[in-house]
Design a protein that fits this description.
The chain has one domain (about 35-150, about 160-370). It has 13 helices and 4 strands. It has helices at about 50-70, 75-80, 100-125, 155-160, 175-205, 215-230, 245-265, 270-275, 275-280, 285-310, 315-325, 330-355, 360-370; strands at about 40, 45-50, 130, 140-145.
Length: about 375
């Protein structure tokens, strides 16, 4: 007995449809479009943020000279003796850096790096930031796209810009959907990792390394800043406690900037913002985008200063503590650090081409992850 004939589709166009490609076919995508150098609006004037580089260098040189001069003053020398960099009564940690802390330190860096890359790609789809929810052209305070032209229709496709593949994920213009899957997925991993870190910090007593317990932390932080700027570094005690400047910076990063990033991330979702009444109106989507962006810059500044100090204040000893959990002069920290960074570099390099080649897989993994109840 022969099989029954296949049913005839009701829509004659259905016979002409083919299975969609799992890749992003760049030949069928929007053509690349360069943006502009990032600018910040001050009053009515747009300032190129690349001026930060020479200005920052100049101010840094001046600050070093001033700090070295101040250290010659007797009153400042007495101040440094009275406040050496950490309050003598501050509690200390006796366990050093346990394995769970070292692992989660690396995971936090990995998840944050991917999330930031994808977030920049999301921003590139509408490369402007506002403090008001109406988004009227010309009211943005930050942009890396030219001004919205008048006398013609200007859409999101016109506004989106191409990013280098090593920076954004995947870098192609108007690929906000794929970028959001990366941003949401690794943002969720970052949040889960952070919750575990919070719990273990307070369970293990490691929180005393990060949380100030006396007001003396502020003059000691000023003393530490003066010592760093004068290029005479304070005594290294990271194995048992951070100096006051480190402690304040870590406290802001872990207990202020991270929660602010999470809250402003969620408040960009209309389904959440619209249900929160006055809070949703106060922290509307555009204001949340701006604060979220500024929090990202705090993280980038923290990472830059943190990594710089790790290498200029004794790279071998610092890496031993952070990666091997030992306090000695061996090369065990480097033996872990080098392969870890090599793995990170390979993942960073492959993220964009992987996304373009396996776009549907990225979508399915992200959808499965964020749909977990």
């Amino acid at each position: 007995m022969s099989a029954p004939p296949a049913p005839i589709p009701h829509d004659p166009l259905a016979t002409k449809l083919s299975t969609a490609d799992d890749r992003v076919r760049l030949s069928h995508w929007l053509p690349p479009q360069e943006g502009t150098v990032p600018r910040i609006r001050v009053g009515r004037r747009w300032i190129n943020i690349l001026w930060v580089l020479p200005l920052g260098f100049t101010l840094g040189v001046i600050a070093v000279a001033v700090a070295q001069g101040l250290r010659e003053l007797p009153a400042v020398q007495d101040f440094l003796v009275r406040y050496p960099g950490a309050p003598p009564t501050a509690p200390t940690v006796t366990a050093g850096f346990p394995a769970w802390l070292r692992i989660q330190h690396f995971l936090n860096f990995l998840f944050m790096a991917v999330s930031i890359r994808a977030g920049i790609q999301v921003l590139a789809d509408h490369p402007r930031l506002y403090w008001k929810r109406d988004c009227t052209p010309g009211t943005e305070w930050f942009r890396f796209q030219k001004a919205v032209p008048t006398g013609r229709v200007w859409t999101a496709k016109d506004d989106s810009v191409t990013l280098p593949g090593w920076l954004g994920i995947p870098g192609t213009r108007h690929s906000i959907g794929l970028a959001r899957w990366w941003h949401y997925s690794f943002g969720l991993l970052w949040i889960v990792n952070g919750v575990v870190v919070y719990a273990l910090l307070f369970w293990s007593g490691q929180w005393v390394r990060l949380v100030p317990t006396t007001w003396e932390v502020f003059p000691n932080a000023a003393s530490t800043a003066l010592q760093y700027l004068s290029l005479t570094f304070p005594v290294e005690e990271s194995w048992t406690r951070y100096n006051s400047l480190q402690q304040i910076a870590y406290f802001i990063t872990v207990f202020v900037a991270a929660p602010v990033s999470i809250v402003t991330g969620f408040m960009q979702g209309p389904a959440i913002s619209n249900k929160l009444g006055w809070f949703g109106r106060m922290l509307d989507r555009q204001r949340a985008r701006s604060i979220h962006f500024l929090a990202m810059w705090w993280f980038l500044l923290f990472i830059l200063v943190h990594v710089t100090l790790v290498f200029i204040t004794g790279a071998r000893a610092n890496l031993n503590m952070m990666f091997a959990g030992v306090r000695d002069t061996s090369w065990s920290g480097f033996a872990i650090f080098i392969p870890a960074m090599a793995l990170f570099a390979v993942a960073w390099w492959l993220a964009s081409p992987f996304t373009i080649r396996y776009a549907r897989l990225v979508h399915k993994i992200g959808e499965a992850q964020v749909s977990i109840r």
